[in-house]
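User: I'm writing a tutorial on reading structure tokens. Could you give me a worked example: one chain, its sequence, then its tokens, then a sentence or two explaining what the tokens reveal?
Assistant: Sure. Here is the example chain.
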Amino acid sequence: MTILGNRWRLTIVAAALAASLAVGVDAGRAEGPPPKLDLTLSPHPAGGADSYLGVRMVLEHPDLKAGAGLMRLPLKLVGIPTARYDGEALSARDDEGAIPLSQSEEPPTPQGVYRRWSVTRPTRGDVTVSFHAPPRQVTAATNNGPLFDLREEAGAFLGAGVGFMATPVPPGPWRVHLTWDLSAAPAGSRGVWSYGDGAVDTVLPSEALAFSYYAGGVLKRYPAGDGGRFGYYWATEPPFDPADLAQRIEKLYGYMSAFFGDTASSYRVFARSNPYLGTGGTSLAHSFMFGYHAAAKPTADSLQLLIAHEMAHTWPAMQGEHGDTAWYSEGTAEYYSLALSWRAHAIALDKVVRTLNERADAYYTNPYRGLTNPQAAEKFWIDPVAQTVPYGRGWLYLVQTDAAIRAASKGRRSLDDVVKEMYRRETAKQPYGIPQWLELVGREIGPAKAKAGYDHMVSGGLLKPPADAFAPCLSVVSHPARPFELGFARSSLNDERVVKDLVPGSAADKAGVRNGDVIVEVNDVNKVRSDETMAISLTLRRGGTRQTVSYLPRGAPVEGYRWERNLKAPASACRF
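And here are its predicted structure tokens:
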């Protein structure tokens, strides 16, 4: 998750997982065609508690033994609650009739705990699994987070499979046939999946059903119709021009996909309106969903880089554990969302400079900046600010690497050559992990220098922009920054809204905040974090009384850097 200006930008490890699924669907396939999986989705937008998205899944001859796992679903994923399906809300049948199911919890992971449904007798023939997915109810007090939950909005359902779609425990791959039963939906309804509009036939593993987006009901689409490589979908008319934003995204997608040599895949963007503060997005398989707060009046300009970041996740990825490789997935998304937007003439130079400095400030003021990659990974799912570490760290390390490659090759080569080769290896199903990265960078600047720069980055060392980074267009200047210090656990601002882990002597402590205070209202923390001069305002309830406190959540100045425009160099000299 990254905070940029007044926006939340949330990208989870699922993005890298989804990208790998898209190119590795036949891993481990047995002889002959994969078994069939027929999936039917039925929107029932009745409003409120009576609304549900019906799910019917038919698995071709899974031939499970008694006690084998049939389906699984997280109970909560990185803090986002799912449909759960308590009791007998999920049922299964085969040729012998109803299958009694047992429930258990899989070992916990940093992301959450999965519930597993297992069969209590051997299965015979095809197995049909059925359940009704209820949309999550949200309010102005709901905490902003990854867009994994299923929502109902203006007669449509929108959400990620991982929030409601119990998926087969057998990993697949499957010959998936997805259809939409729109008989209970309003006239003019449509059904869309990350992998296509309407009925879709494809081959995918079980995980792909979870880490992809579904939207069904009354949806608007740009461009009109159901075909083409690109689609943008929304249910509620937003405060910005959706066609204008969609056209910008479509143009940038064309440029990005051509840059990475991907001329065949499709891409879909889903927009969702939130009743709470914050704008955020989550990238999954060749698709992206973003949520916005209409009262904040976001514009196409303010949303463009958010979507460019998520779209860039479609291509670069790195093998390995998330804590070890997030710097690459998030760093490349940060780097190429800006660089390719500039090259595609989709962004003005002043916005490029402003964005570079916003990202630099976010890196230097991050209180977790000095943590090692493993230490930051331990806090990744606990504190949203810790989730931003790989964004700034990865991006600035890639800026350094690009400058080093350009210098070593006298401008003939750049970071592009290494990242494209990593992607080529990924699509060719060759190794594309950290050793391969160091090998490729070592070819460009020397193995010792490549290893030293990488080790400095992962150890939490301070990253300084090289003097020649983006020269002669821009110049690097010193800019001391004051780290953001909330003064108590960031998780206190989650749905429970209770202050905990107050830091003695902090600005929050001095302002009168106390452990156990209930946070009734708070101004936009994202805006506060992006502006060193802005105070945070909290309305607290303690016992039977309320009070409002304000304080500046900043620590002492630390070393930092920014870029300035060198007006002696023409804009044509600017390379990103």
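What the tokens reveal: Confidence is low (pLDDT under 50) at residues 1-30. The radius of gyration is 24 Å.
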